[in-house]
Amino acid sequence: MPVPWEALIPCGLLVVMFGVTGNAFNVAKRMTNDGKPPRYNLDSWDDMMIERDRRLTGSHRGQSTDPIAPKSFSTSSIWPTERVH
């Protein structure tokens, strides 16, 4: 049985387009995570640590090795505050 060569062009286009969009999505996902793979199955402790890292470094994936927190960390609480009259 002869091979329908003209059917290979659309099949090749589909393979290329799915490959391009999959790789573009992977690159976009890594760019939003500072070049690191995405996190899965996060619990409340991980959420607290992500929020702490965001307040310390300004990025939710950044981590600081400085043992002393910056001055702005003492006033950047995640708890909402209200003025007492």
Automatic annotation (TrEMBL):
Region of interest: Disordered: 53-85
Database matches in InterPro entries: NADH_Ub_cplx-1_asu_su-1
A single GO cellular-component term on record: mitochondrial inner membrane
Cell compartments where the protein resides: Mitochondrion inner membrane
Pfam family, one: MWFE
Record-annotated membrane-spanning stretches: 7-28
Keyword vocabulary terms for this entry: Electron transport, Membrane, Mitochondrion, Mitochondrion inner membrane, Respiratory chain, Transmembrane, Transmembrane helix, Transport
Membrane topology listed for this record: Single-pass membrane protein
Keyword Phosphoprotein: no
Bias (Polar residues): 60-79
Classification via PANTHER family: NADH DEHYDROGENASE [UBIQUINONE] 1 ALPHA SUBCOMPLEX SUBUNIT 1, NADH-UBIQUINONE OXIDOREDUCTASE MWFE SUBUNIT
Function: Accessory subunit of the mitochondrial membrane respiratory chain NADH dehydrogenase (Complex I), that is believed not to be involved in catalysis. Complex I functions in the transfer of electrons from NADH to the respiratory chain. The immediate electron acceptor for the enzyme is believed to be ubiquinone.
Similarity comment text for this entry: Belongs to the complex I NDUFA1 subunit family.
Protein name in the entry: NADH dehydrogenase [ubiquinone] 1 alpha subcomplex subunit 1
Provenance organism: Kwoniella shandongensis
